[in-house]
Amino acid sequence: MHTHTPPVFIEALKVARADGFIATNVKLVRVFENGLSHNTALFYSTEKEFVLKSFKGRDQLSRQAIQAQVITSRYELSPKVFYSNIEKGILVCEFINIPALGQVPNTERSNSQLLRVADSLSTLHNLEVSADIEALGHFDIVGFCSLYVDTASDAIKRQHELLLPSIIEFQKSTTRVFCHNDLVADNIFCLEKALSKNASPETDSTIFIDWEYAQLNDPWFDLAAVVFYLGLNQNSTELFLNQYFLKNPDTKHNHPQRLLEATTVLLWGDVLWHLHNFGNDYQPKLSHKIEWLIQHASGLN
């Protein structure tokens, strides 16, 4: 083990090895920028390279993240899991050695990648709601926003009151599927045969990471995230949605309005989360999201 390996990873590896995870001649390659909920690092060993996540809390989010990735990795929707320990907040998985879509310029993204994102998202949303998925619960966007609005400025609180009826109405949706609920562009990877040894030899695929918020939700929440966070124009949006609708025709009903509603709810939750975690001085960095809401969400001014 590298002498500069942070203790949090040393302890997590001890737990994993004691439980049977095999890794010899382990070397730390890099420590990733810490997420708010976990410490993450890349290691090489004689047997394999792997990513080690050690969650900072033993709360519902860490449990959801680990359990959801264990479930979805069976369907090649998330990195393969080598070891997991929900009680101790440890996850060991494969390393996806290509850039996330968020790091690929729009001009370099292909239509085929967008179609694969739609297909993989359709696969996720069509998973049978097993007891394990049901146990993850339902995503409470009203509660999510209420949790983070407490520390917001008075102006943001007033805007929240204006948007709250729309958020409550969205949550009343009776359509509930297994959703990722955090599909920012940096959480989406398009594996291609020519680029990644992780890809299947038969087909290209899409991998999603960071499953902390994975729960049952309206599918439009994930669809809106892909459209907004990937910055899709009208043509790309229609291409993406039409591919998704092939296996989910019922979702197509009134889809322009549903996309508007879902994007409004998605972005307001996003704004509140960032302000809560980074302070009200962070608001200028959210200007493009707030501007979208001002332009599209009735009553926000």
Note the topology.
Blueprint (H helix, E strand, L loop, with lengths): L6 H12 L8 E5 L6 E7 L4 E7 L4 H14 L7 E5 L4 E4 L17 H15 L5 H5 L5 H9 L4 H18 L5 E3 L8 E4 L13 E4 L6 E3 L1 H11 L4 H12 L9 H24 L8 H10 L5
Antiparallel strand pairs: 1-2, 2-3, 3-5, 4-5, 6-9, 7-8
Q: Which structural category do the helix and sheet elements fall into?
A: alpha+beta
Structural domains: how many? 2
Low-confidence stretches: 194-202
Helix share, percent: 40-55%
CATH architecture of the largest domain: Alpha-Beta Complex
CATH class of the largest domain: Alpha Beta
Radius of gyration: 20 Å
H-E order: HEEEHEEHHHHEEEEHHHH
The biggest sheet, with number of strands, parallel, antiparallel or mixed sense and barrel status, is:
5 strands, antiparallel
Placed side by side, the strands forming the largest sheet appear as: 1-2-3-5-4
Q: What is the first-to-last residue Cα distance?
A: 55 Å
Q: Could you state the CATH homologous superfamily of the largest domain?
A: Aminoglycoside phosphotransferase (APH), C-terminal lobe
What percent strand?
A: 5-15%
Q: What is the count of DSSP helices, taking H or I runs of 4+ residues?
A: 10
Overall mean confidence score, pLDDT: 91
- The geometry reads as globular
Q: Could you name the CATH topology of the largest domain?
A: Aminoglycoside 3'-phosphotransferase, Chain: A, domain 2
The tally of beta strands, per DSSP, is 9
